[in-house]
Amino acid sequence: MAKSKFEYVRNFETDDTCLRNCYIVVRLDGRNFHKFAEQHKFTKPNDNRALGLMTRSARSVIEELEDIVIAYGQSDEFSFVFKRTSTWFKRRASKLMTHVASQFSSSFVFYWKEYFGEQPLLYPPGFDGRVVLYPSNRNLIDYLSWRQADCHINNLYNTVFWTLVQKGGLTTVQAEDRLKGTLAADKNEILFSEFDINYNNESALHRKGTTLIWEKRDETVTKRMKRPNEEEKDVVVTRSRRKVEAYHCDIIGDQFWEEHPDILEDDN
Ligand code: DGT
Ligand code: MG
Ligand code: MG
Ligand code: MG
Ligand code: MG
Fold first, then answer.
1. CA of 36 to the centre of ligand 3 (A)
2. Would you list the domain boundaries of the chain?
3. Does the pLDDT value for residue 245 go beyond 80?
4. Is 30 known to sit in a ligand binding site?
5. Which ligand gives the minimal distance to the CA of 30?
6. Residues with beta carbon inside 6 Å of ligand 1?
7. Domain tRNAHis guanylyltransferase catalytic, which positions (predicted)?
8. Ligand 1: which atom is nearest the Cα of residue 44?
9. Which ligand has its closest atom nearest to the C-alpha of 77?
10. Is residue 75 marked as binding?
């Protein structure tokens, strides 16, 4: 087919192919969720409906798009890791990032009612996205560890802060003052000695965030079968199915990675 004289404008497109052999991480973050949480009356410090909806939306991303091997989410953010050998959309960063962001956003709206019931969605939420490449397994694990450490630091702070306000009767300004300069040990101590709360017994979902991975599960189903010249009978059939599983566990230490050796490809 003859090319039109306009064809040359294609050459203005920039190449954003992600470097080979690298894990491609797409991280989404809710736009102005400080306001979104307030307007939709999220419970403090954690709203399980909101966290459930985030995880549901992330599940939709993993199931609908190609080559995502692990995802990690906390607060209003979710990170998606594409396997290092992925050739989906020729590894074009903008394609991968926009597919993740739009699939996630539309799912967030689509599944809203399943988590918030009759409480209406007041305006269309948005999510920003970025792409980061990690060349080694160590770098990738350290990236995910960084996000989980962030979850821990924020959740410990928010847990003490809202306990001081909700149970200790402090104003938010007083609670902020009280926590200024405190270390993790001090925060644990306030919870334990003043409120009889052992932080380690708080919800793992809140302390550790949510990790989603693919897992093979054997599924057995009973089928009614009829072979020629035989009576109809129940036959047990086992088949292996890939399913996205959610964990709220530590991913900073080695144990998780040793127990799930299929997530990462070899470094060499
Ligand atoms: P951004 O990301 O720069 O557009 O602005 P924000 O406001 O989204 O800031 P960000 O992402 O640093 O912080 C997340 C906000 O979302 C933070 O203000 C707390 C809020 N948020 C997230 N999850 C929950 C929740 O479960 N409950 C409540 N009450 N707030 C939450
Ligand atoms: Mg932000
Ligand atoms: Mg945000
Ligand atoms: Mg955030
Ligand atoms: Mg198209």
1. 9
2. 18-208
3. yes
4. yes
5. 3
6. 29-34, 37, 42, 44, 46-47, 50-51, 75-76
7. 6-135
8. 29
9. 4
10. yes
Domain 18-208: top CATH class: alpha beta
Q: What is the ipTM of this complex?
A: 0.96
Q: Find out whether 260 is annotated in a ligand binding site.
A: no
26 CA from centroid of ligand 3 (Å): 15
Q: What is the pLDDT of residues 110-141, one digit of tens each?
A: 999 999 999 999 999 999 999 999 999 999 99
For residue 89, give the ligand nearest its CA.
Answer: 5
Structure tokens at 178: 């009280």
Question: Band of the pLDDT at 247, cuts 50, 70, 90?
Answer: very high
Q: How far apart are the C-alpha atoms of 228 and 107, rounded to whole Å?
A: 47
For residue 95, pLDDT over 90 is answered with yes
For the CA of 42, the nearest atom of ligand 1: 29
Residue 175: pLDDT over 90: yes
Neighbours of ion ligand 2 (CB under 5 A): 29
Across residues 51-55, what is the average pLDDT? 98
